């Protein structure tokens, strides 16, 4: 996705509020959960975890991770603090076709926020229709 243009006129209070809402999680609690859960990873999971952490630190990387499912559609999003489905985050239309686009304006505060994000975890990718990816792209 293109970076937001510097001449875009966002209401900075609205954008600041949106960013604040996205970042208003309890970092101490998340760090405690992380320190409790990372040691439980098996060897393969550790390799993936380490690679993703390094990619986030260096602002690069794209991963496809395949493994046996443990949750039904949308449940994984609610298991993660402030998680949401791809359809919700990217406002992907429910009825997709080859000309579908996502319903976020390029000049919106939501688009600006998406461009600021460093990591997307898109669960159940193999079950998504290719038009969903094309709409987001």
Protein model, in words:
It is an enzyme of class 5 (isomerase). Its EC number is 5.6.2.3. With 137 residues, the chain is mainly α. It has one domain (12-136). It is 46% helix and 0% strand. The protein has helices at residues 12-23, 27-37, 43-57, 75-79, 86-90, 109-116, 130-136. It is globular, with a radius of gyration of 17 Å. The N and C termini lie close together (7 Å).
Low-confidence stretches: 1-9
Terminal CA distance: 7 Å
Secondary structure class reads mainly alpha
Number of alpha- plus pi-helical segments = 7
- Mean pLDDT score, rounded? 76
**What spatial form do the alpha-carbon principal axes imply?**
globular
Beta-strand fraction estimate: under 5%
Tell me the major beta sheet: none
- What is the number of domains? 1
Q: Please provide the count of β strands.
A: 0
Helix content class: 40-55%
**Series of secondary-structure elements, N-terminal to C-terminal:** HHHHHHH
- Computed over alpha carbons, the radius of gyration is 17 Å
